[in-house]
């Protein structure tokens, strides 16, 4: 375990604050040993740990289909994708640990239901086409959100995002390809694909968070160069990416009002149902309780692995001491 880094330099040190401001202004990276304002550290711990939890909880909706994938090839691809998400969670937990929180603390917050994770994973996956819609829409939205995070001012976070984004683009392509195959299939398969797109489209737009005028923390995160684009800017970019891809697929995006407004250079959409977003966020989504219970069970069932690993490490260390 590393010592908390927060006390290395007193937080009221004006010189340290000025050095921090300079690093931010010059687009340099803040590293774990640099002084940083307590609020910057707290914001990053919250954001990175929520992001890590999202990757880990996000394994469940697709994990649901590993044993029922339609072919060996699909099974192998899906397993690789779900394993990637586990890896993303691990990079991000490690990045958060450099800020002085322990992995145990973060796990405890998650399984006690005190931590947030992306609401999108609280929706069920009743059909195989959901694997396509998740890859195309959910991983697609994740890419739009995460590519700018590769330049986040906190070094360990930005560097973790570089690798994550490379893997996300594979996830998006495999989802697109699942939908494309279904759309070239029987009428029942096409209907299944369209139904999945209908269910995932709106929740994927909600992944960018509330509209800019209702997003109170965005300004500070932008000033700290953690966030580079506003929620609405990213949502617009995502829609612009989806529209031509939906055409290639032959699916309809379920918004009759969706159209490009040339004079304003933006996509017009129907009103997003933010009541649903807040309900799911508050823990009242269709799968919130199941997702958390599964995570809690996995943690408890894995206790013996953690104990065995700790015991093994203890024995190895004792052996090294003996030899020395
Ligand atoms: Fe991921
Ligand atoms: Fe992904």
Briefly say what this structure is.
This protein has 324 residues and is mostly helical.
Key words describing this protein structure:
13 helices, two-stranded antiparallel sheet, mainly alpha, 324 residues, globular, 2 strands, binds fe (ii) ion
Secondary-structure topology with pairs:
Blueprint lengths: L13 H12 L12 H20 L1 H5 L8 H26 L5 H9 L17 H18 L8 H29 L3 H20 L11 H6 L7 H19 L9 E3 L4 E3 L5 H11 L3 H14 L1 H21 L1
Antiparallel strand pairs: 1-2
The protein binds fe (ii) ion (FE2) (2 copies).
The site of one fe (ii) ion (FE2) has 5 residues, from helix 6 and helix 7.
Structure description:
The protein has 324 residues and is mainly α. Helix content is 65%, strand content 2%. It contains 13 helices and 2 strands, in the order ααααααααααββααα. The protein has helices spanning 14-25, 38-57, 59-63, 72-97, 103-111, 129-146, 155-183, 187-206, 218-223, 231-249, 274-284, 288-301, 303-323; strands spanning 259-261, 266-268. Strands 1-2 form a two-stranded antiparallel sheet. Helix 2 runs antiparallel to helix 4 (72-97). The model has no long low-confidence stretch (mean pLDDT 93). One fe (ii) ion is lined by residues 85, 139, 142, 168, 171.
